Amino acid sequence: MPGVEPATPETTPEVETAGPADAPADGDDADAGDELPTEPGTATDTDTETETESDAAPDTDTDTEPTVATGSDADAPATAPTRRRLLIPAVALALSLALLAALLLVTREDPAQRSRDASAASATARSTLEQILSYNHATMTQQVPANQALLTGKFKDEFATTMTKTIVPLATKDKTVVKARAYEVGVMSQGDDTVTVQAFVDQARTSDAQKEPSIDQNRVIATMTKVGNRWLVSALKAY
Questions:
Q1: Distance (Å) of CA 100 to CA 89, 95, 112
Q2: Where in the sequence does UniProt note compositional bias of the Low complexity kind (predicted)?
Q3: pLDDT band at 99 (very low <50, low <70, confident <90, very high)
Q4: The CATH number of domain 113-238, selected from 3.40.50.300, 3.40.30.10, 3.10.450.230, 3.10.110.10
Q5: pLDDT at residue number 109
Q6: Is the torsion defined by CA of 207, 213, 217, 223 positive or negative?
Q7: Could you give the CA distance from residue 2 to residue 196 in angstroms, rounded to a whole number?
């Protein structure tokens, strides 16, 4: 119609369509629900901490292993017996050392004294044997007490009894005279205050019936005992 401009057809706005460059990748839609990638080490650290906490948690299992005492706890009950066991050998060792020291001291000081004692006992034995084994019928009653002064112990009385009851009557009857001589006197053994000697003794005997002396050879063992500063005969055995 005149005067009316023909209607212009409405144009549909152009819609930009995403090009291939803007399209999402083929696998993006499928992975849209997956976790987003985390920073390196984040997930690993979390898992490690969880495992560590689990490992560090105390074991609540009712089966418990027996506790083993170690160190001083295990040794504590045995301390006193152990000390006693160690103390006894220590005391024994100390006593042994003390005895050894005393023995060494005595041994160091003793040889000279022992030698002097042996010499003195041997010399005294010689003179004593010659005196007590000699007798004269004319002087025997005076000789017995003098001889007893050279003796000690039970032998002192035994000798006096034998001389008085046996020898004196026979010697008086036969007018006997005996002269003894001791030789080769040697030490057989020695103690602290005793020395045992062996001696050979010859006795020359005369009487009214025998004017020429007869020799009796004897071997005797005499025990010399130190009494004070003197060596006296305490035992005498002839064989």
A1: 16, 8, 20
A2: 1-24, 65-78
A3: confident
A4: 3.10.450.230
A5: 53
A6: positive
A7: 188
Task: Report the alpha-carbon distance of residue 221 to residue 126 in Å, rounded.
Answer: 11
pLDDT digit string (tens) for 8-40?
444 444 444 444 444 444 444 444 444 444 444
Any residues with CB less than 8 A from the CB of 168 and at least 6 apart, and which? 137, 140, 141, 144
Q: How many helices (H) and strands (E) does the chain have?
A: 6, 5
H/E segment holding residue 54: helix 42-56
Side by side, which strands form the sheet with 230-238? 135-136, 177-190, 194-206, 214-227, 230-238
Contact between 172 and 137 (Cβ < 8 Å)? yes
Domain spans of the chain, in order of start: 113-238
